[in-house]
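Allow me, if you will, to draw on your knowledge of protein folds for a short while. The matter concerns a single protein, recorded as an amino acid sequence and a row of backbone structure tokens. Kindly check, if you would, that the fold set down in the tokens agrees with what the sequence suggests. You will find the record immediately after this paragraph.
***
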Amino acid sequence: MQTSNPPMDSAGPDVAPGLSQDALYQEASRRHGRDVARFVAGYEREPSRRQELLQEVHLALWQSFAVFRGQCSLRTWVYRIAHNTGATHIQRSLRAVDRDHVVLEDIEDTAAGDESLARTERRLDLERVFALIHRLGPLDREVMLLYLEDLDAAGIGEVTGLSASNVATKVHRIKKLLALQLGARGSEA
């Protein structure tokens, strides 16, 4: 007779107990590395600073596994660390004087690109969405970025400390705001 493991609760541990800090980090990177990279893109527009933030998140993740005890899922832990590191990054950026400068190479890369019209329009739409998300307050921005990462209201609540109903309300309001602002900009073009 074969026994199966009970289904994992989304908030429960989902990695083998007793893994080393390095093994936990490697497993988290394997499972959620691409998600973290996408998530970080919501915090930082400039590619070089985005890469720097991604490195900060990975360092913070590795360091955090020294105290990880499996009281939540690996995914929740990874997003909590990414959230905290991203929030700190935003706070530091707000104090920086040279926030909106563009690197010359980035302008050249953009100008040299030979994209189709549909791809360009999609990229512009995404840029508008991210520009609007960047204008949101830190908590609202975090909620929306987690929503875009396909976390449900309960999962977002675990990361941010908000109730699931509060998260759902925020997501609904932000989506409505984004739709209105994107619609208004679309009619200007």
Summary: Residues 1-12 have pLDDT under 50 and may be disordered. Residues 128 and 182 are 7 Å apart (CA to CA).
